[in-house]
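Thread: "does anyone have the structure for this chain?"

Original post by V.I.:
We have the sequence but no experimental structure in hand. Need at least a predicted one for the grant figures.
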Amino acid sequence: MAEVEFGPLVADEILVKIAGVGICHTDLTALHGALPLPLPAVLGHEASGVVVETGPEPSALSPGDHVVVSFESCRDCRQCRSGHPAYCARFAALNYRGVRRDGSTTMTRAGAPVHGNWFGQSSFGTHAVASARNAVKVDRSLPLTMLGPLACSLQTGAGAVLNVLRPHPGDSIAVFGLGAVGLSAVMAAKVAGCTSIIGIDTNAERLSVAAELGATHVINPAEVSDVVVAVLSASPRGVDHSVDAVGLSSVVQQAVSVLRSPGTCATLGLQGPFNDTTINQGHLLMGRSLTGVIEGDADPQTFIPELVTLWGDGMFPFERLVATYPFEAINDALADIAAGTVLKPVIIFD
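Reply from O.Q.:
Generated one for you, tokens below.
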């Protein structure tokens, strides 16, 4: 742990006192150098907390507001204006480069720049600088420390189903990879009324959790000779939709192969920005589709409140995925998520 200093807030920036922050696979990807964040830097991008200060521009947020802090977007480009901020034309600049638009950093240490702005926040700390654009106000009665994962992994899995695949009641779906993203897809599939929900993972405990959260069938690839055959045994005509929450080429191929014609696979798993995969064109020619999805193609300002409402109605019990760690144990949490022994570690602060 290290002390950093924050300079004056600019534009619509806000200073947030962090209550809790989830650890996401994307944080691990950056930690291992697969994403181009300059060093030194602070990671963390699934924050929840309390606004303690606002910048000079007028804002709908005020000190004392409870917020969930999601990814940053410009809110002005064609994609943002059409309701798709996850595909913002400035997404990389605003979320990956570690600096403001003018090249300055939000943090310094002993006078030297420290790169922040990771997903518009860098929230692995007691405080983070975000903006009014990527902070979603939530009701003060909600369990604030637990809400951070809604900002990325939970909205990614749920959004891929509800915003992109959009299954009809009675449809079938297969979800490959049952981490927090995949299990969010399972919960969303149940919300959408899918009657056949097939969860695939090599982790027996995650298969058990998937069954509790709505999966009608679970498959362990280590226990079957052919995953595709196993899925087709559960859904003989193929599935209407599939979700790849792993990102390995072999898994993407399986997720496309299990589709009926027509059918759509949404691939979400991140294995770094350069990740070649091979698809049998014959599968696509038969009316199957493969689409990539970032952040569930969601607008956090509207989708996070939708997920909160589903949670309040008992239809999106994401607390089942959360394990909390004090800030002093952040290295333990990082090790546990890398080892796959927890689903969604959340670092909490006093």
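V.I.: this helps a lot. The chain has a mean pLDDT of 95.
O.Q.: and Residues 153-165 form the longest helix (13 residues).
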